[in-house]
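sorry to bug you again but im stuck and you know this stuff better than me. theres a chain ive been looking at and ive put its sequence and its fold in token form underneath. id like you to explain what the token line says about the fold, in plain words if possible. anything you notice is useful, everything is just below.
___
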Amino acid sequence: MALWNTHKEFSAEFLAQYHEYILYDTYAQIRALLLYPLNCRCEGDCRCTSLRSSIRLALNTELYNQAEAKQTSTEVLYVMRLLLKIPDDRFFRKHYADAYPLWLIEENFQQKVNHFKVVGQLVWTLLRLAKTYEVSFFKTSKASLKEAIEIIVGKMPLKSKPSEQTPHLCGEKAYGAHFRTYKEVSHFIAALQLMNKTSFTLTSSGQIAEFLSLAHWVREKLLVIQTPNVKDNVLLDEDDLVPLPPWVNSDNVRISLDPIAYKLRESQDLLRQSLAAQAS
């Protein structure tokens, strides 16, 4: 899945010098993907690809116009036009937002906030469930959507304490439906949720770099989760999740996942029963 412009026509030194603009462009593409996911399920003539391009250009044009208003040097403005694919037309740059207005982008995000919360909650539950099995009697990073959803909506054993139940945001079927819609970008949603960015607006290149590293970490963790009785025994494969640009990594990300307490107790009970059976 080739989404990112790798800018092969520029030298490594040039790209390193102006890396912040590549970060902004990458984030603009991700925001467009969040609003118009690859798994759009449009019927008939699909305009999602065109709309994603329009959103990206609108966000990049606004960034350029802000730089121009701050009297940024001519050299930097020229670089921005190159890296952000901004047409060299002053009238266009000032009025492009009218074609896909920025207020509409923000409004669309507000309309989808609850959907994103649902997907983020499900992703983090999957990660915690996988961690639980990894440190338990089973010693395997495994999870399933069905079990994660049941944990959220409350299908728990009677002996479980109410305080262990995660507040749910919708019904069981809706969790599955939202995840299917946003599956390819679910790692981005989970990363933004971890940063507590409910508005999905990052304002600095440093924030964007942090976000990309977190999304990379979430993606790597999701891809190693095993799920029995499905193709290849994996929850998600490489093609299910939008990849990050090749220059992104999560080497410095350290996140502690809390195991799900009652699931861990169940594993400990199984271990005791297994040991007792061996001793008898």
Q: What stands out?
A: The mean pLDDT is 87. Residues 111 and 278 are 56 Å apart (CA to CA). The first helix runs from residue 12 to 17. The radius of gyration is 22 Å.
